[in-house]
Amino acid sequence: MADPEQTKPRSRLARVGTALAVALTGAGTALAGLSSGQMDLAQYWRSLAAQDQSRAASQWALAGFKRTRAVAVGASARTARA
Fold first, then answer.
1. pLDDT single digits (tens) 19-75
2. Least crowded by CB within 10 Å, which of 22, 38, 74, 80?
3. Three-class SS of residue 8?
4. Is the confidence at residue 7, as pLDDT, over 80?
5. How far apart are CA 52 and CA 49, in angstroms?
6. Closest to 21 (Cα-Cα) out of 29, 31, 32
7. Distances (CA, A) of 56 to 13, 28, 45, 46
8. Cα–Cα distance, 71 to 23 (Å, whole number)
9. What's the whole-model pTM score?
């Protein structure tokens, strides 16, 4: 015959405890997913900012090159006229 301890119905606290553990696991998984999504978004914006910064640096370098070239050509023109 079966042991009376095993056939006895579980207490309400035991059932609520199990359900609470499952619910908290689900909530934790959902929050981890949200956190991961926010991290992906932050990395996207950071890489976009780095691209913009690189583009700006390239444009400043090109402007500096053009200015240097204009000064050199102007000096050459003055020398040729003299």
1. 888 899 999 888 888 888 889 999 999 999 999 999 999 999 999 999 999 999 999
2. 80
3. coil
4. no
5. 5
6. 29
7. 64, 42, 16, 15
8. 72
9. 0.51
